[in-house]
Amino acid sequence: MATCKACQEPLTLTLDPADPEIRDGGEEAVMVPDDLELQACGCHFHWQCLLDVAPQVTTSMHCPACDTSLASGHAGSSSSASSGQTILTNYASEDGVQQDYDILSVLREEAYFAQHPEDRSAKALHIMSAEGDVAGIMDVLMTEAEDAEELYQAAPVQRLTTWRDPLNGGQTALHVAIVNRQEDVFWLLLWVATPGVPETAFPAEIARRANSQVILSRMKTVYSGQIDQGGMDVRFVRDDNGRTPGDLCREVGSPFSDFAQSAVFQ
Asked: Do residue 244 and residue 226 come from a single domain?
């Protein structure tokens, strides 16, 4: 049986039967493939084992096992081809075999967060913003606030909402929500991170949901004081193309172009 070049273990993954995502619902552990083959050299790794050496791979662009150059100009099935480089793989998992998968963008992201672990919560917020996961966003914001030394400290909320993703064009979570046309997320982020905007400027359901969470109300109040002292206002943070969220609203069209003319952006 083939083994991983990093850990020398079989190229399988044992799934916990207690995991609700396991489809068969049985009581026994489930063994599934976990075989990531680098096309350039034919070396095989577990998915996580290759991610564990992401900083090394993205710096050298060589296989960590045999030192073969991995860079390719051939476009694969994922998105990093626009950078001019790809690392093509074949990946066998519980979902089947994916050919020509470009793993470079995944490795670059993993390498970045290995060096900047403090940004993982902000990235999670961006992913939830793209997916429209309002409940998840509220959980992240409240967890950050509760983990802070002072509940009334605005810094965690401000850091999360104004963080610009260096791997996604310098966008904030609000930019991401607009691009993905997630209206509920759009209004929730503005509710939390815009000082001095009256509740009447927001949809009634968003105001009701936010007001039902005491911590969110507290964070909004304190964030206002932070902005008054020179902190960043999420409405005016620009991405790498110089666009504020309001600019992006006008680009994506209705209904966001209408939102850009509302009292929230005045």
From this structure: yes
Query: Tokens standing for 145?
Result: 């606030």
Alpha carbons 247 and 255: distance in angstroms, whole number: 13
Strand partners, 92: 35, 97
In terms of pTM, does the model score above 0.90? Answer: no
2 domain-assigned: no
Structure tokens at 116: 């900047």
Domain that holds residue 156: 117-265
* Residue 105 counted as domain residue: yes
Q: pLDDT by residue (tens digit) across 106-158?
A: 999 999 999 999 899 999 999 999 999 988 988 888 777 665 545 445 566 77
Calculate helix-pair angle for 204-211, 183-193, nearest 10 degrees: 50
102: part of which helix (H) or strand (E)? strand 96-102
Euclidean distance between CA atoms 177 and 160, whole angstroms: 14
Task: Tell me the per-residue pLDDT of 148-207, one tens digit each, with 9 for 90 and over.
Answer: 545 445 566 778 899 999 999 999 999 999 999 999 999 989 888 876 777 788 877 777
